What does this fold into?
Amino acid sequence: MSETEEPNESLPQQMRSFEEACRDANLKLTHQRLEIYRELASATDHPSAETLHRRLQKAMPTLSLDTVYRTLATFEQHHLIKKVQTVDSQARYEARMIQHHHLICDTCKEIMDFYWTSFDASSVPEDIQAWGSIKNKNVTLYGTCRKCQAMKKGGNPA
Amino acid sequence: MSETEEPNESLPQQMRSFEEACRDANLKLTHQRLEIYRELASATDHPSAETLHRRLQKAMPTLSLDTVYRTLATFEQHHLIKKVQTVDSQARYEARMIQHHHLICDTCKEIMDFYWTSFDASSVPEDIQAWGSIKNKNVTLYGTCRKCQAMKKGGNPA
DNA sequence: CTAAATGCAAAATTTTTGCAGTCCC
DNA sequence: GGGACTGCAAAAATTTTGCATTTAG
It folds into this structure.
């Protein structure tokens, strides 16, 4: 396996793990929670609370935005999802809990996941040990994706 | 020089570069801009607009919060400062424009800068080239700083 | 002098909270 | 049935904007 290959878990599998984790944490399995989690786990674009709400409203017209906010906060407290670090005004989320890194396009702002096992296995500079104990190491790469590069060069200036 | 040693630029030096950059960008050198920049450049804690405003108000009682917001946005557009990626609700800023990385304490939430020249010199996995062109690579390390470790163990539970 | 920048107040955006009713276990 | 959860509405927190006045160049 290449060091950037994606370790896969199917959505049904992930839903089962989620339900189990909720039971362990004494979180009730409501329709809203299941659908919010399913929507987030299916998304690849690290959506905000508002984006999730907009997507879910088609199927669940009575779902309220504050429930989405409250639910995401609950999930995050129980380490079922993560808030993604961004410079955006709206907070963005991901359900992928395995070690991975982010690739951000400076033009379309899309956030992509990627894997880098040799970095994960490497150790940080010695001096850092003096600061404290490190639990996690994450890389963010910034650049311009192929699509946006093409757009700029010849193409279709929006 | 160790690979995590800090390259230094004195504050007066940094102020001169800033003033020159403002002139080049046709930004007027107002008292507010100079003081906001000086405060941010002196800070090591990646302050938010509100924090900067609070600190500056002692010396400049009439400085308004919206001027701080507007000024930081202007500086950022001209690449004189950077917004720091966080999961906080308030946006945070730094005046340090040279390549560096961040160390975040999961307890006190402090953000520290550090340097890692061997990482900076290394190349990213080949597969990434297919995504587009990379302009910047940043590492964020999460963990618990010595101070907070000590607090938890025996010490002085706040 | 003039365009740009500031301060004030008001609005917009994003997120949180109190409470009454509903639903999972 | 009872405590947890949701939806509604209102509030809090953060950031942006319009406009009259001031200021740097």
